[in-house]
Amino acid sequence: AAVVVLVFLVNARTTFISALAIPASIISTFFVLYFMGYTLNMLTLLALTLSVGIVIDDAIVVLENIFRHIEEKNCSPREAVFAATKEIGLAVLAITLTLVAVFLPIAFMEGIVGRFMKSFGVTMASAIMISMLISFSLTPMLASRWLKRPARKNGDAADAAAPAGFEEEHARASSKQRGFYHFIELGYLGLLRFALAHRWLVVIIAVLLLVSVPTQLKGIAKNFIPDEDESQFQVQVRAPEGTSLEATQLLAARVAQDIRQIAGVRYTIASTADTDQHVSNLSSIFVRLVDTTERKYSQIEMMDFIRKELAPKYRAENLRVSILALDPVAGNSGLSSGIYVVGGPDMKKLEEYANKLAERLRQVPGAVDVDTSLINGKPQYGVVIDRDKADDLGVAVSDIAITIRLLLAGDKVSDYTDKGEQYDVYLRGAAEARNNIDLLRMVTVPSMLRGAVPLGDVVRFEESTGPAEINRLSRARQVTISANLAKNASLQALIDALDEAAASLNMGPEYRTTLVGKSKEMARTMAAFLTVFLMAFLFAYLVMAAQFESWLHPITVLLALPMTLPFALFSLYLFNQSLNIFSILGILVLFAVVNKNAILQIDHTNQLREAGMSRYDAIVAANLDRLRPILMTTVAFVAGMFPLLLSNGAGAATNKTISSVVIGGQSLSLLFTLLATPVAYSLFDDLGRIFVRSKAKAPQSAVENPSPTE
Description:
Elements: H1 2-9, H2 12-36, H3 42-72, H4 77-103, H5 111-136, H6 138-146, H7 154-161, H8 166-172, H9 174-177, H10 180-197, H11 199-218, E1 232-238, H12 245-260, E2 265-272, E3 282-289, H13 299-315, E4 320-325, E5 338-344, H14 347-362, E6 367-372, E7 378-385, H15 387-393, H16 397-408, E8 411-418, E9 421-427, H17 431-434, H18 437-441, E10 444-447, E11 451-454, E12 459-466, E13 471-473, E14 476-485, H19 491-504, E15 512-515, H20 518-548, H21 553-558, H22 560-574, H23 581-610, H24 615-645, H25 652-704
Antiparallel strand pairs: 1-3, 1-4, 2-3, 5-14, 5-15, 6-14, 7-12, 8-9, 10-11, 13-14
Helix pairs in contact: 1-2, 1-24, 2-3, 2-5, 2-6, 3-4, 3-5, 3-24, 4-5, 4-6, 4-20, 4-23, 5-20, 10-24, 10-25, 11-22, 11-25, 14-19, 20-23, 22-23, 22-25, 23-24, 23-25, 24-25
């Protein structure tokens, strides 16, 4: 960022002054983090990294304006500080408040993501507010003492002291008349005059860009979070129902051994029945890879290799194999792959619906490891009570149920305390007794007529198979459809396919479908981000309405924001990224930067018009004056994103997602927004004049045509 200042201003003192704004703002933000009780984690560090390119903006804008007053108006450094800060102070204040209005609503997002994003929003807003204070205090103070008035030739001294118009003042700026910036300014001046002369051409291009947004959205994958390479993932293995714990452990050990033979695997950890339900035939294998610098393939490529090369061999042995990344939200609970739920009263109907939905999902490109939570085939005995015989023998149904429950499930009979911990004591039948049907038949139950009778006299045991477990939500039975994503797949495409398939099943009103897991959190997060965008637009509009004392000019500024969206979406496609919560965060950052540029353009245009310039001359002069600080802040911000784009290791996918949106969107949209904003300003100014004229004609026509009653 400091190098950018040196390149544009060609002045070492201004470079040093602007560079001080970064550490001063970032270090001061640490006090806010300490006061709020936040830690240095992925999101707070991400906020600090993004703010590096933003906190220097205020200092660059103020410093460049001071430097311009010294060069063009021949002011002393002290005079330039007062004049330049007064001229641009309200604009910087408006920029800061609008940036805060953009980022602070993130802290109030709902859901799990909202809890994470709170520290991000507060950190960004704090750094921006502190940077404004520094740009109004440290930067002007240092500029007044360190900057020097440029030496002029003897013949130019009288000209420098005499009043001059815009072109004469502009010609005095030696830093603008040499080097590459001079050619950039000439090119922009020609394009700006062409755009103002062909305003409707710019409008047509803007409309075409906005029309392209829905088409671009259809072609971009939409996911909850980017695919991170954390050098670790999980393989789930489920043996056929009825497989013992010992046999499942042997199967898991076999799978883990085959995985360890693959180059790049550091170690594996296999665990069996490690769930809340202690399912004996379910194992999970934690796979740890070597660091990204020690292997030539990514984590998701390794997962695809296991899915295609090893998993089919075990599926042939009736094993259910699923390979999934460790979800940062759901953890390694094994539930992170569930995306869709169908619920209702009849298990046979639920099984039919779930199988049809899973079959449709298998046809969607990118859907892998498709499965349902309804797993049949578990061996079981059904207990059927002979009610007539039980009534004849005086045996109550409740006594039969209590006896069987005590033998098989057990009942709490006591508790004991050891070292401050209390443990429950349960009593149930021995394993050899409760697993032997002949012994269970001989168990006696209370009888009001005979005292006690064998259980086999009043019930019969029917051997069958059934579901491994029945899940319920709000007391209704449900089946979860789960799937993982292949590389570059879209979670939204899976959800759309499931919704379409569910609608074609014509299920009764007693059956319902809903999202679950990542898909549910993604939908909730997208809705929360929509609220954030609406709040940001509203607050930014109110701030700018107070700044410009107009209800119309803020619309001109805000029009620049949707103009950047097509370029941001194209950047996602260009860098092969998906639309997820972090890329949306990048779009929000992009909106904030573009909004800042538009404020600088509109505010200075209004100032020059108030000074007596015509509208056309004011637009041209203001945009030329603000071109250099806009380019400086944009280049500095984009340059600050390149370390994120080039990062590797854990968390790199998040960094690349945000940086690709900012770099591509800002670089591609810069020229068009620099032209579209002044064109929109002139069009809305014409609209405002028409409104004022029509409003002035209304009272006049009322006077000329009085009502008959007068």
